[in-house]
Design a protein that fits this description.
The structure is a single chain. The protein is an alpha/beta fold. The chain has a single domain, classed as Rossmann fold (3-Layer(aba) Sandwich). Helix content is about 40%, strand content about 10%. A 5-stranded parallel beta sheet has the order 1-2-3-7-6, sandwiched between helices. Strands 4-5 form a two-stranded antiparallel sheet. The chain is globular, with a radius of gyration of 17 Å.
């Protein structure tokens, strides 16, 4: 699949995100929009998966550690064919398949139930260790939030992944600079994040998280790394694609009203493909 096609899919994913969160009248659009290009590239180009067989034994796995951006994951899974897109309008509804955070028991394509920030990398370590013991060569992808890496458990897991030489883990840090209470620098500064991961024994790759070609190349590079885990630090824009949401911490967990929904979708659809 070429870059232009992936960009078009990413636009559809962003529209799906806005539609789902607006229908739910709650959710997390800001971080969902910032990670859309990353998830699109992984699910449509890089990951070994089969939507018709979501439990394929040798599939690559993805752990959405920042589980509150489930609308982005659901939007991508729907576009990829794991379930009908109509389900997106039932986000966060009682007894519906798509809850506010990923649930591996009810949603096809979800490999790990997440939501409590900081725990996803530990779960990925377990998957990666299991794969090593079973002599499997599939990859475990982990999507981390930059506010999330303020959690101590992330660094315990980072230390463990390096200690056990888990080169089958590829983490992607959605580095949009904002969290629910403001900027990372104001709440708890994580810089220099590249040096921190390097000190914990990780291979570090830094990219523009909205450049699909750069995302693709970074994943290819990470797949070649041996004897250590890799983190791709992807600089992103919170609310990417919707000008009134971009770089605004207030859109971390606020749903658009009807007027904002229409304006957001119009802007996404006329954006550069």
């Amino acid at each position: 699949m070429n870059i232009t096609e992936l960009k078009e899919i990413a636009k559809k994913v962003r529209v799906n995100i806005i539609e789902a969160v607006a229908a739910a009248k709650s959710g997390h659009p800001g971080g969902s929009l910032s990670v859309a290009d990353i998830l699109t590239t992984l699910y449509f180009e890089k990951m070994n998966i089969d939507p018709k067989n979501p439990k394929l034994e040798d599939r690559d796995r993805l752990v959405l550690s920042k589980g509150h951006v489930a609308p982005a994951l659901y939007a991508v899974l729907a576009e990829r064919g794991y379930f009908p897109k109509e389900n997106l309008k039932l986000l966060r509804k009682f007894d519906a398949m798509l809850q506010g955070h990923p649930d591996m028991k009810s949603t096809p394509g979800v490999d790990m139930s997440t939501g409590s920030l900081g725990q996803g990398l530990s779960a990925a370590n377990g998957m990666a260790l299991s794969a090593k013991l079973d002599k499997k060569d599939h990859k475990i992808y982990v999507i981390l939030g930059d506010g999330e890496v303020q959690e101590g458990q992330i660094w315990e897991a980072a230390m463990s992944a390096s200690h056990y030489k888990l080169d089958n883990i590829i983490a992607v840090l959605d580095y949009n600079g904002l969290q629910i209470d403001g900027s990372n620098e104001e709440v708890m500064n994580i810089a220099p994040i590249d040096a921190k991961f390097e000190a914990f024994g990780w291979q570090v790759i830094k990219i523009d998280g909205h450049d699909i070609e750069a995302i693709s190349n970074a994943v290819d590079e990470a797949k070649l790394v041996k004897e250590k885990p890799t983190v791709i630090i992807a600089k992103t824009v919170k609310g990417k694609g919707v000008s009134f949401m971009e770089n605004q911490a207030g859109w971390h967990g606020t749903a658009p009203n009807e007027e904002q929904r229409k304006a957001a979708i119009e802007e996404i659809e006329r954006g550069e493909a």
